[in-house]
Design goal:
With 196 residues, the protein is α/β, with parallel strands linked by helices. It is built from 7 helices and 6 strands. Strand 3, helix 4 and strand 4 form a beta-alpha-beta unit. Helix 3 runs parallel beside helix 4. The mean pLDDT is 95.
């Protein structure tokens, strides 16, 4: 099928920038596995995958997290948002924990994760907060609207202020269950000396 054919891109010797818009294509977890093979593309440094509304769950998210092994990857945008209830992805805490392992990508400096309308919960938000450990990450955008987390998740995300290289942070958290305590924790992000 079309998704399987995309695996051949990993053989492109001089491919540096790759953007694939595959929204609403029934990619599923099996297709995510095929796309994860792009980690074998030796010189891609900028990768954008729009996989919104593709019935991708935790297994697919775990597979896509292996993109951290791409040897030249510096910028990654990964969209696993669900668009509607019937056209969705279903990433839960386990998938978010796997995606948090992207912090291990050795050259990654810009990361955008779109997970709106999934179900990562507090445990997933807490896992994503570990992205602060990515040594070179200077730009991070987390789109986490409608993910069923509350104060515990928000408090964990506030710890992103500890990231050593982070200069730009975008957190999109609408339609969660964040109360005053979580909001207060997020306000502490203004204490981070390098963030703007």
């Amino acid at each position: 099928n079309d998704i399987q054919a995309l695996a051949s891109l990993k053989a492109a010797r001089f491919l540096h920038i790759l953007s694939l818009d595959l929204a609403f294509r029934n990619v599923g977890d099996a297709g995510a596995q095929v796309l994860a093979s792009l980690k074998e593309t030796p010189f891609v440094h900028n990768l954008s995958l729009n996989l919104s509304a593709n019935e991708i769950g935790d297994a697919g998210a775990q597979t896509l997290a292996s993109l951290k092994e791409a040897p030249s990857l510096r910028t990654l945008s990964l969209n696993l948002s669900a668009m509607f209830v019937i056209f969705g992805n279903l990433v839960r805490a386990a998938g978010a924990k796997a995606l948090a392992s992207l912090r291990g990508a050795p050259l990654l400096h810009t990361l955008s994760l779109h997970l709106c309308n999934n179900r990562i919960g507090d445990a997933g938000a807490q896992a994503l907060a570990s992205l602060k450990e990515a040594p070179l990450l200077h730009t991070l955008s987390l789109y986490l609207s409608s993910n069923r987390f509350g104060n515990a998740g928000a408090e964990a995300l506030a710890s992103l202020k500890e990231a050593p290289s982070l200069r730009t942070l975008g957190l999109y958290l609408s339609n969660n269950k964040i109360g005053d305590a979580g909001a207060h924790s997020l306000a502490s992000l203004n204490e981070a000396p390098l963030l703007h």
